[in-house]
Amino acid sequence: MNSSQTKAFSVQGLVRGAVVCALYIVITYLMASVNLAVGPVQFRLSEMFNFLAFYNKRYLWAVTLGCAISNVLVPGNLGIIDFIVGGGSTFIFISLGILLTKKLSKMTYFNGWLNVRFIAFSVFFALSMFTIALELMIFVKTPFWVMYPTLVLGEFASLIIGMFIIITLSKRIDLSR
Asked: How far apart are CA 63 and CA 23, in angstroms?
């Protein structure tokens, strides 16, 4: 592979990551406009992009940056605190989720529509919302056990719906590129 091909591939990779980051921000902003991306019940459909990290590690960075930027731009968030806590949690728990669910990658049912790895990751990542519940408890004085269950349910629902969207896309587009 010559240097122009290598450069083209890295530029393509950067553009693909930037597109995912931008989509995360736009979808989060749209969900926030109908009061679903912030507050006691957070339904961030943009969390579906977390699954892209299973296909290519570049998307881990794209989703982390998209989440962090969304946490600053979307009204109702805690700004720089949310940038750090939310972005950091996203990076840490997607990374851990990828490692913990790796052996489940070949377990699918119903012609690939039900992916055990995606479901296990969804449970794991939804339970990681304790970081956001703690953040809200510390900075907004919201009771932890009031926020945590609703954050877990909202995150899990977002991921399960997103799972079907990403699986559908993966059947039509090579997401590993």
From this structure: 9
Average per-residue pLDDT for the chain: 90
Position 138, amino acid: I
Token pair, residue 53, equals 């990290």
Which tokens in the block code for residue 167? Answer: 């699986």
List all residues 6 or more positions away from 150 whose beta carbon is below 8 Å from its beta carbon: 40, 41, 42
CATH number of 3-172: 1.10.1760
**Other CB atoms within 10 A of residue 116 CB:** 15
d(C-alpha 126, C-alpha 59), whole Å? 19
Cβ-based neighbour number of residue 17 at 10 Å: 21
- CA 49 to CA 23: how far, in whole Å? 9
Give the model confidence (pLDDT) of 60-119 as tens digits.
999 999 999 999 998 878 889 999 999 999 999 999 999 999 888 777 778 777 889 999
* Integer Cα distance of 50 and 52 in angstroms: 5
